[in-house]
Write a structure and sequence with these properties.
Blueprint lengths: L15 H9 L4 E6 L4 E5 L2 H6 L9 H6 L3 H16 L4 E8 L5 E12 L5 E10 L1 H21 L8 E2 H18 L3 E8 L2 H8 L1 H18 L6 E6 L2 E7 L3 H18 L14 E8 L7 H17 L5 E2 L4
Parallel strand pairs: 6-8, 10-11
Antiparallel strand pairs: 1-2, 1-5, 3-4, 4-5, 7-9, 7-10, 8-9
């Protein structure tokens, strides 16, 4: 095996030693690869401090490729080779493996050196440790994801909010139309909630909303089912691939779970516990159907349930 030269042969000038001292005193790691042989003719000694691999172990591009994290290796090698073959300067970010099995984020900045005839002569570049930057970017992305989740979550009840429902409803409508599967929606209103708040106070009212949301969310338990708070004391269940009978069963299961919670309501007009009224609708959307019209239909059924005495499910219009 040959050992890369100890001086940076790609540097020009009257005193190459000066340039070498400057390069090797920076945190950037200089390197040079001869294109014809694909072998390193130089790599800065800083590489050993960063990755643990000695400069003498960097013989060819295979050593470079083997020391790239396996998840980044193929795309990084393919990109760099393609750009180099075209004579295009480029940059690549990837995880470089350390000798002790850890990894460091590297940004490789590559310049393509051409010969007099225009063909690629060599590649020279610098490796930069960007691990801290990447870690900060990851933290920012995580915070962004958490904020996005919060933006679709009702802060009081911890179920989805209207924004989430408005986002998913057209998506599930389009899926149901494409697959010719039924889509069901249940709109729910807590009976005599104003009277509840007036009697128990708003803090107890908030707790009531949370407990109702828990019962509804538990009743709509499949992974694609969505329980959302539309606002105030009104909730909605979005039930993909659910026919009329199954939607009715979900609604009744929610009422049963709420009843088991036995939330006292001394000012209810239908008993002494908190109850809900529900409007249910099922559709296999066709090209002429409109999601807004369908929601209006379910709202009318909710109104019918309330007009008929509350504490009930209405799944057909009178």
């Amino acid at each position: 095996m040959t050992t890369p030269p100890t001086s940076p042969s790609f540097l020009a000038g009257d005193d190459p030693g000066v340039y070498r001292t400057l390069l090797e005193s920076t945190r950037a790691i200089p390197w040079r690869i001869e294109w014809a042989t694909m072998r390193f003719t130089y790599i800065g000694p800083q590489i050993e401090e960063l990755l643990g691999w000695s400069p003498s172990s960097w013989l060819s591009v295979n050593d470079w490729a083997d020391r790239i994290h396996e998840e980044d290796r193929q795309k990084t090698v393919d990109f760099c080779v393609a750009q180099s073959q075209q004579g295009v300067d480029h940059e690549a970010d990837y995880r470089a493996l350390t000798r002790d099995g850890d990894h460091v984020w590297i940004r490789d900045v590559v310049h393509v050196v051409r010969g007099k005839d225009g063909s690629v002569d060599s590649l020279v570049g610098f490796m930069f440790d960007i691990t801290a930057r990447k870690n900060n970017e990851d933290k920012i992305l995580q915070l962004q994801r958490e904020l996005e989740v919060l933006s679709y979550r009702d802060s009081l009840t911890n179920v989805a909010n209207r924004r989430m429902f408005d986002t998913l409803y057209p998506v599930e409508w389009a899926k149901a139309r494409a697959t010719a599967e039924p889509l069901s929606i249940v709109v729910i209103d807590i009976d005599y909630f104003k009277q509840y708040n007036d009697h128990y106070g708003h803090m107890e009212g908030d707790e009531c909303l949370r407990r109702v949301a828990q019962a509804l969310d538990a009743g709509a338990s499949r992974s694609r089912d969505l329980c959302a708070r539309l606002g105030g004391e009104e909730f909605v269940l979005l039930l993909p691939a659910t026919d009329e009978e199954a939607a009715r069963n979900v609604a009744e299961r929610c009422r049963k779970l709420l009843g088991q919670g036995a939330i006292p309501h001394a000012r209810s007009g239908v008993g002494r516990l908190v109850t809900v009224s529900m409007g249910v609708g099922t559709i296999v959307p066709g090209s002429q159907d409109d999601p807004g019209v369908f929601m209006d239909r379910i709202d009318r059924r909710l109104y019918q349930a309330k007009s008929a005495g509350r504490d009930r499910v209405c799944d057909a219009e009178a």
